[in-house]
Amino acid sequence: MKMRKGMKMNNQKIVMLLAVLGLFVSSCNSTKYLTEDEKLYDEGKVELKVDSGVANDRKEAFEESLASMLRPEPNAKLLGWRWKLSLWNMGGGPDTTTNFVRRWLKRQGEEPVLLSDVNREYNENLLRNRLENLGFFNASFFSDTSINGKLATVTYYGIPRSIYRINAVKFDIDSARQIGKDILETRDKSLLQNGKNYNLDVIINERERIDDDLKNQGYYYFSPDNLLVEVDSTIGDHKVDMFVNLKPETSEKAVHPQKIGNIFIYPNYTLTTEGYQRQNRLRNQELFNDNYYIIDRNKTYRRKVLANHIFFERGQLYNRHDHNQTINHLVNLNTFKFVKNNFEDSPDSTNTLDIYYYLTPLPKKSLRFEVLGKTATVYNGSEANVTWTLRNAFRGFETLTLNVFGGYETQTGGNVNLNSSYYRYGAEATITWPRLLSPYKWAPSRKFIPRTYLKLGYEFLNRRTAYTLNSTSLNYGYNWKENDRKQHDLALAEIIYVQPRNVTPEYEAQMDTVPTLRHIIEPQFSFGPNYNFTYTNTMEQERKHTFYFKGGINLSGNVLGLIQGANASEGNIKELFNTVYSQFIKLEGDFRHYMKLSTNSQLASRIMIGTSYSYGNSRSLPYLKQYFTGGPNGLRAFRARSVGPGSSLPENLGQDNFFADQTGDYKLELNTEYRAKIAGFLHWAAFVDAGNIWLQNRDDNKPGGRLSKEFLSELAVGGGAGLRFDFDFLILRTDFAIPFRIPYNAKSDRWVFKDIDFGSGKWRENNLIFNLAIGYPF
């Protein structure tokens, strides 16, 4: 029989595929290159014998923490697969090959960790020492090894015994000296408390606490190492007495507060390969504001603005707060590439420090180009951004940015032609000032730099088979941080103007069938202030419960509408600059709660509430201000803007027609997600989402869309699971979700669990939603 040419090629491909597969499978054999007497170190475990009254989860967490100290660590695993060891095996293992590919694979992998590499006695002493540092002075450990084929596990068995507690804390400090008085005044804030467990970490923190207090009272040269905490564990009854002392060898410099002398600022410093070198100040240099020598020959920066970010003054005592705050401000001016300060003994006075600030500027102008890829359910596209930045634009550390962008999006899947392909381009110019420009003198916390911003933007959107939109926006306002947790953003003026153009006959024909489409292309003109407040403590990772809240209010046309007596319900519609303007009050809140379940897992939950009241000149929010739900960051089991309002049916209008976005004046969304680490950068999550949007006023074209007392029965519900790839600098998220409850079904048929059929291609096509996104949804 004569073999066809195509068949021969297919056979060759199969042979090559089998060869590659065989190489991969053989590399997965972790013990491939081990000799007969070598064992692969599989795992190190810790088991503690503790009282029965200790909760299992606390015991397991403690054992897990101790096990993380064991050395060496076994080969890295991903879902049980030693992937780095496999790469090393694929590279030839111990073979010293010169093949480029094999050498590269070996560099990416890691050699096998053997049982012979484990020093059990060292680990036993390490664990015992750790328990002693926690107050278990009589703890003991022993270990045992279990062998399973070529794999070895070492288990360390520990008996903590009784913990020692603090009986008394005494500060043996000479109160006749000033430093003694200053230390004794801090006793009430001591971390060493009677009745608490002995803990070496707490002792270290106590020394650092005293040092921090002294640093804020001028003791620049003091160090935590100047303090000694002695412990007497012989008093019996598993108790200890503690004595806080100042070491006798502490230097004279360390026990005297330091004053601030001359302050030299070099805002155009050039860093050399020899490091920071003191520069001589210019002759006849003036002392600015009786405090600062600013060596700026070319007057690059306005001295008053620069001095406003230096918190030290001549003659004051040194303190760490002003030290750190000055550095923080200089770094966050976004003008300097490097910020360095040196404190040196003044040649003119004892116990006095001269300060030298060396500030290396960033390039005054910079250009950045980036290309983004976007994907969401059945849409794909890309966007390009070119950003030009001018730093220190007006010599007061202002930043001027000009961003020019362009992009497109097209439909690449789905069973309905949404005709949502579009291209867009535009530009935005932004100026930010590192201060509050206001006729009224008000200043929030000086710990953070407040900012004033002015933004002017333009965008042209062309939905080629439907319409084009010209959008112009103007924003002027302030943002500032009250403290580490609270942030404010007040836009004194937000103006948005959208004008439709080139509406196609096909789109106009569809508007007669689906009046909702008309709302999208209505001219939009809103103006007024808005305010947002953000609170978060999610940076405090030691907490079991952390929170995030963002709330805001947005106003438009309120005063003008009242003055003009606008009333859209009675046909009395008013205009500004020959354009109908919107009149509304909009409130929204986003509350999130994160509960740490273990070191590698947490439960994240969110509730979003949006409400509004349109009156006077408007019967509903303008399209750009309306709420929507669905999509990769909301109800993930439903496509973006495809849910609601209420129980109304989404208007998919056929193979070649348009898809009307579902928007509303009210919104409720609830999300909860279990997140856990699998191994390395690989995480997973399971989630449930619920929510919907509603209208303020009745719309005959959207039956069931108005908010009513039955709104809870109209919630859409969905859920699913997905993987997260956490690369530190980037989190890539994949989610698969299906609907559980569909609000536009009949009341008795809204839960759709009975319809779930993963074996049906038709069901999967209509119900299984895949979302690819960057970052967590909340």
Low-pLDDT residue spans: 1-10, 13-27, 414-418, 653-658
Largest sheet: 16 strands, antiparallel
Backbone structural class: alpha+beta
Rough outline: globular
Distance between the termini: 64 Å
Number of helices: 13
Report the helical percentage. Answer: 10-25%
Kindly provide the radius of gyration, computed on alpha-carbon positions and rounded to a whole number of angstroms. 34 Å
Q: Spatial order of the strands in the main sheet?
A: 11-12-13-14-15-16-17-18-19-22-23-24-25-26-27-28
User: Strand percentage, roughly?
Assistant: 35-45%
Query: Number of DSSP strands?
Result: 28
Plain-language structure description:
This protein is an alpha+beta fold. Helix content is 17%, strand content 37%. It has 13 helices and 28 strands. Strands 11-12-13-14-15-16-17-18-19-22-23-24-25-26-27-28 form a 16-stranded antiparallel beta sheet. It has a four-stranded mixed beta sheet with strand order 8-7-10-9, with helices on one face. A hairpin with a 6-residue loop joins strand 9 and strand 10 (352-361). Helix 1 (5-27) packs across helix 3 (83-90) and helix 3 (83-90) runs antiparallel to helix 4 (100-108). The chain starts with a helix and ends with a strand. It is found in: Membrane.
Keywords summarizing the entry:
single chain, signal, transmembrane, 13 helices, 778 residues, membrane
What's the short version?
The model is unreliable at 1-10, 13-27, 414-418 and 653-658 (pLDDT under 50).
Topology:
Elements: H1 5-27, E1 40-48, H2 56-67, H3 83-90, H4 100-108, H5 120-133, E2 140-148, E3 151-159, E4 165-172, H6 178-184, H7 200-215, E5 227-232, E6 239-246, E7 259-266, E8 292-294, H8 303-307, H9 320-332, E9 336-345, E10 352-361, E11 365-376, E12 379-391, E13 399-411, E14 422-433, E15 451-463, E16 467-481, E17 486-501, H10 505-513, H11 516-520, E18 524-536, E19 545-556, H12 558-564, E20 575-576, E21 579-580, E22 584-598, E23 601-614, E24 666-679, E25 682-694, E26 716-726, E27 731-741, H13 761-767, E28 769-774
Parallel strand pairs: 1-3, 4-6, 7-8, 7-10
Antiparallel strand pairs: 2-3, 5-6, 9-10, 11-12, 12-13, 13-14, 14-15, 15-16, 16-17, 17-18, 18-19, 19-22, 20-21, 22-23, 23-24, 24-25, 25-26, 26-27, 27-28
Helix pairs in contact: 1-3, 3-4
